[in-house]
């Protein structure tokens, strides 16, 4: 209703912490049906998506840390191998 009264999508999205795409969807449904039947369902779905995104972001962070940790010994081994090869070549 605020959008139809003249408020901008950006302002609404920021104030309610909802994407502009979702607001456009709600406006289209309202204009088609004259009411929003699935408000609660859409809000629940949005919360589920936000929770899933947060869980995936945490997992990505954990995997990045694990990768960085595991990559460390390989770098050390590669440097040692390079130094060893260079010293053998010089002495050879």
Structure, described:
- This protein has 92 residues and is mostly helical.
- It has two domains: 1-37, no CATH class; 40-92.
- The protein contains three helices and no strands.
- It has helices at 9-16, 20-33, 39-91.
- The chain is rod-shaped and about 75 Å long.
At a glance:
The chain has 92 residues and is an all-alpha fold.
Q: How is the secondary structure organized here?
A:
Layout: H1 9-16, H2 20-33, H3 39-91
Most strands sheet: none
**How many whole angstroms does the radius of gyration measure?**
27 Å
Q: Can you give the mean pLDDT? A: 79
End-to-end Cα distance: 83 Å
The count of strands amounts to 0
Oligomer designation: single chain
Strand content range: under 5%
Q: Key features?
A:
single chain, 92 residues, mainly alpha, 0% strand, rod-shaped
